[in-house]
Amino acid sequence: xxxxxxxxxxxxxxxxxxxxxxxxxxxxxxxxxxxxxxxxxxxxxxxxxx
Length: 50
Fold this sequence. Notes:
The protein has 50 residues and is mainly α.
């Protein structure tokens, strides 16, 4: 792989990991009052289980 390829790979993965860490950090820092509207996957009513 060329030097340019390695630079592109490194920059791309750095951006992906940084964005993921930023989003996960934002979710984990939510206070309980801010997270009341977030429901677990087993609590979402899709209307197909009647």
